[in-house]
Q: What sequence folds into this?
């Protein structure tokens, strides 16, 4: 009888994870928005463009916002989500966090681009069926990382990471880091890094493997257990919708590169490095700030539910290791949108400020 209950419990957990993965796929058929609703670019005049050459990706733009007191010691990187655009970061378009962070005397660096990249070094340029990008007759889609339009129609179109191999981990940990130090005098050590959704996963990964650069990392609604049942196929569908990218070009299934990207797998590194972490995911229930945006709620609830399951699994993993270097935040309301993530930065800010520089 006891064994039967355990079997039923395991079956319920498996069905729940698969069900949430399937729930993730539902919005893809009705809308192209995945990580956030479409928005119009809102250039912040307080920021400036900072171009850095990458060996494989060519010139890459970041947006830099200087600390109010002019210091060069306190630096944080803010990573974007799946639908990262080529002109501005979603953080600049949709939030006011740059003002809050610079007022706290923190320099802010927002890498631009990396749609569907997970900020990883990919195995190969993104291709489908071994066809080079743009080879399909009648293919359509933008190479600009637009936040609108059907990504499924962009499977065979060109764009960032299709004519060349994404090497975002190398770029952030070497090229951008060195250029910020050499040209702006920024401290290359004990920086912070955070991101939402895809960017949350990327931030934790970068901190794990580059502890001298990042003493602090934050994940908001991140996918922190990507080897869980159903997650690879959920990510496959998400990447197709967010620009027409192929997860198999990023990393072969269950190989070293894939496991390199899974926070659940490399959690012992984070404990050993004593990296200060801020890990958050909301309940997937709409809050007061969400009621004016019905489509964001429809799309954001299942996505946040999946992020919450992933984040709770990561929490259990870290607790099993006895890690005491993590703050967890699970707001009672919030869906997968910028209202949630903007508010999370403000909650994280005092802890971030105390653990960088």
A:
């Amino acid at each position: 009888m006891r064994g039967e209950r355990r079997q039923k419990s395991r079956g319920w957990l498996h069905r729940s994870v698969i069900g949430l993965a399937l729930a993730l796929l539902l919005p893809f058929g009705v809308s192209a928005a995945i990580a956030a609703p479409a928005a119009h670019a809102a250039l912040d005049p307080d920021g400036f463009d900072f171009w850095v050459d990458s060996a494989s990706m060519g010139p890459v733009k970041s947006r830099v916002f200087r600390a109010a007191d002019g210091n060069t010691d306190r630096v944080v990187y803010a990573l974007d989500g799946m639908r990262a655009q080529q002109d501005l970061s979603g953080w600049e378009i949709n939030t006011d966090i740059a003002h809050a962070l610079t007022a706290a005397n923190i320099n802010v660096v927002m890498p631009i681009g990396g749609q569907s990249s997970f900020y990883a070094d990919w195995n190969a340029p993104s291709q489908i069926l071994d066809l080079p990008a743009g080879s399909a007759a009648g293919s359509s889609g933008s190479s600009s990382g637009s936040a609108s339009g059907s990504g499924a129609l962009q499977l065979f179109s060109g764009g960032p990471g299709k004519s060349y191999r994404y090497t975002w981990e190398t770029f952030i940990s070497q090229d951008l880091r060195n250029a910020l130090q050499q040209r702006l005098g920024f401290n290359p050590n004990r920086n912070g890094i955070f991101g939402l959704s895809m960017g949350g996963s990327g931030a934790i990964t970068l901190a794990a493997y580059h502890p001298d650069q990042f003493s602090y990392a934050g994940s908001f609604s991140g996918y922190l257990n990507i080897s869980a049942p159903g997650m690879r196929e959920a990510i496959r569908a998400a990447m197709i919708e967010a620009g027409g990218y192929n997860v198999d070009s990023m990393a072969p299934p269950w190989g070293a590169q894939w496991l390199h990207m899974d926070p659940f797998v490399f959690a012992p590194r984070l404990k050993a490095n004593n990296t200060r972490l801020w890990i958050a995911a909301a309940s997937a229930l709409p809050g007061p700030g969400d009621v004016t945006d019905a489509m964001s709620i429809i799309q954001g609830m299942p996505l946040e539910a999946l992020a919450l399951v992933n984040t709770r699994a990561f929490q259990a993993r870290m607790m099993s290791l006895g890690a005491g270097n993590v703050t967890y935040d699970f707001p009672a309301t919030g869906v997968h949108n910028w209202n949630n993530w903007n508010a999370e930065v403000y909650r994280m800010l005092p802890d971030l400020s105390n653990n960088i520089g």
User: Anything to note?
Assistant: Residues 1-40, 135-149 have pLDDT under 50 and may be disordered. The chain has eleven helices and eight strands. Residues 11 and 55 are 47 Å apart (CA to CA). The longest helix spans residues 294-320.
